RNA sequence: GAGGUUGUAGCUCAGUUGGUUAGAGCGCCAGAUUGUGGUUCUGGAGGUCGCGGGUUCGAGACCCGUCUCCCUCCCCA
């Protein structure tokens, strides 16, 4: 016999936590549906050929791989063992747990492109798995809520994502948040402008840390990553720009020589305009050149949402990807989407005390079980309550009333029906209000009417 | 994957330089109360001290390994 334990980075969710999580899921799902997204679910695991190479090298490493079933090592030869673990992995594992919902979605779109009404809008709420080291707000199994549109380049999609976030987060009580937006094309243009063509990857990683470690440290890191001091000098405008409120003009002057950067700026300006046209006042959107995060497949807009005044990383992220389906052989389908992290939103709401006070119980009334005769009588009342739409249960054992009331108390059941010989004889049951302690004698249909009224 | 930190009852934690039988609060169970929960009082149960090895006459404490929690880096929801 061994002590039970949870796998690293995983958690159980008890009834109380589930009530809160369900509240989040329901709020998000309702919003997704209101914007015309349709539901989709995909398998927990996929063939590794689908997942590998989509998230960069780092991502490949964080994929949970599933060992082939059966005699996975039978066909291995001595050279296989000496080729290193990466080559070996390919020979003993063909499947992996999904790392996000976007790539499985792209796979689905490619496999079903003939039958989908394009542009196709889908939402998907499922867990994903990542084999990284757990930390605050970071788990190895967590839920993502994704909404994506594929099959259109329209920047309305980006604007709608902004709207969607402005619907969902306040509905959850998160009023103080910032949607940071950047565009991959601008980053590409910057890399070109400073004479570091194709190096936007490392550039992004370093720049992204600006607000965390400061300008000097960023410059140090850039040198370490192989940028020339000349390039870094040319990068100067980025630092002065980063906290401006309407930096597009400056940015245009600086990057006028880069066609691709100008296109990126233009795209962002359009998004800003569309958001305004959609009637959103005081949008919590902020352009941030230093926002460089994003999985390797992003090509246009990049989003990241931060809840302010909390010690938790971003609660949402997303962006536009032009060639994700291309990696499955079907190019030319552009997509854009957003992903909300339920587990982090939960942590934020917990930290800010934002969960509405909800009834911790689902049972509204419990019938006591005094003795055999009363039990049988109770069984005849129970279905009447349930048929009337009242959540009801009967205590299953004939034990001391004290114990039964204690159970009701602990389960936060607001009403108890006491049935004994008196009640059976008169047909008037004792309805006890557990909060006030008061009791009244009523017949079954009166009780149903009372409880129904109580519920609303 | 690199570095740091933590682990003692169901929970939160004490436990002296290594020394008898490892403690407290809360919770749990039972009784006070044979038809009445929360409050109170009384009593009780509950520990391979994360796991494995080592040092020692003797280890919860010291050493090594390992797992886990939390944190920093990397990266991300």
Automatic annotation (TrEMBL):
Keywords in alphabetical order: Aminoacyl-tRNA synthetase, ATP-binding, Cytoplasm, Ligase, Nucleotide-binding, Protein biosynthesis
Catalytic activity: tRNA(His) + L-histidine + ATP = L-histidyl-tRNA(His) + AMP + diphosphate + H(+)
Pfam families: HGTP_anticodon (PF03129), tRNA-synt_His (PF13393)
Keyword Membrane (UniProt): no
Chain sites annotated for binding L-histidine: 100-102, 130, 144, 148, 293, 297-298
Tree of life domain: Bacteria
Residue ranges of domain Aminoacyl-transfer RNA synthetases class-II family profile in the record: 1-383
EC supergroup of this enzyme: ligase
Main localisation: cytoplasm
InterPro entries in alphabetical order: aa-tRNA-synth_II (IPR006195), aa-tRNA-synth_II/BPL/LPL (IPR045864), Anticodon-bd (IPR004154), Anticodon-bd_dom_sf (IPR036621), His-tRNA-ligase (IPR015807), HisRS-like_core (IPR041715), HisRS/HisZ (IPR004516), HisRS_anticodon (IPR033656)
Cellular localisation: Cytoplasm
A single MF term (Gene Ontology): histidine-tRNA ligase activity
An example Gene Ontology CC term for this record: cytoplasm
Sequence similarity: Belongs to the class-II aminoacyl-tRNA synthetase family.
Subunit and interaction comment: Homodimer.
The protein's name: Histidine--tRNA ligase
Species whose genome carries this gene: Dyadobacter sediminis
Gene: hisS
């Amino acid at each position: 016999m061994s002590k039970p334990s949870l796998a690293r980075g995983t958690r159980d969710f008890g009834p109380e936590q589930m009530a809160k999580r369900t509240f989040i899921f329901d709020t998000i799902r309702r919003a997704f549906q209101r914007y015309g997204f349709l539901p989709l679910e995909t398998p927990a695991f996929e063939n590794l050929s689908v997942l590998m190479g989509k998230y960069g090298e780092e991502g490949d490493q964080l994929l949970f791989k599933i060992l082939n079933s059966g005699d996975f090592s039978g066909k291995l030869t001595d050279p296989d063992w000496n080729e290193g673990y990466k080559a070996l992995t390919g020979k003993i594992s063909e499947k992996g747990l999904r790392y996000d919902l976007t790539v499985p979605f792209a796979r689905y779109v490619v496999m079903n492109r003939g039958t989908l009404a394009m542009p196709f809008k889908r939402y998907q709420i499922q867990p994903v798995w990542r084999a990284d080291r757990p930390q605050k707000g970071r788990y190895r199994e967590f839920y993502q809520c994704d909404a994506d549109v594929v099959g259109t380049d329209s920047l309305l999609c980006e604007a709608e994502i902004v709207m969607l976030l402005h619907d969902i987060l306040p509905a959850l009580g998160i009023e103080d948040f910032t949607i940071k937006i950047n565009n991959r094309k601008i980053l590409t243009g910057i890399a070109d402008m400073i004479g570091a063509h194709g190096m936007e990857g490392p550039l992004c990683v370093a720049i992204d840390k600006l607000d965390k470690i400061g300008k000097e440290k960023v410059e140090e890191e850039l040198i370490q990553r192989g940028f020339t001091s000349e390039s870094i000098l040319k990068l100067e405008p980025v630092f002065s720009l980063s906290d401006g409120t309407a930096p597009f003009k400056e940015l245009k002057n600086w990057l006028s020589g880069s066609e691709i950067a100008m296109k990126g700026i233009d795209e962002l300006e359009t998004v800003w305009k569309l958001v305004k046209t959609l009637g959103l006042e005081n949008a919590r959107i902020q352009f941030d050149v230093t926002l460089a995060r994003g999985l390797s497949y992003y090509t246009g807009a990049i989003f990241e949402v931060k809840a302010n005044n909390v010690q938790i990383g971003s609660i949402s992220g997303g962006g536009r990807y032009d060639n994700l389906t291309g990696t499955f052989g079907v190019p030319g389908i552009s997509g854009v989407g957003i992903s909300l992290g339920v587990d982090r939103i939960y942590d934020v709401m917990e930290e800010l005390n934002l969960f509405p006070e909800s009834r911790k119980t689902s049972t509204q009334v419990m019938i006591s079980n005094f003795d055999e005769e009363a039990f049988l009588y109770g069984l005849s009342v129970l279905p009447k309550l349930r048929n009337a739409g009242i959540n009801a249960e009967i205590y299953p054992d004939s034990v001391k009333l004290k114990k039964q009331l204690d159970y009701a108390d602990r389960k936060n059941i607001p009403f108890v029906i006491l049935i004994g010989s008196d009640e059976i004889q008169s047909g008037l049951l004792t309805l006890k209000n557990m909060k006030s302690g008061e009791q009244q004698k009523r017949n079954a249909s009166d009780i149903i009417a009372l409880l129904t009224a109580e519920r609303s």
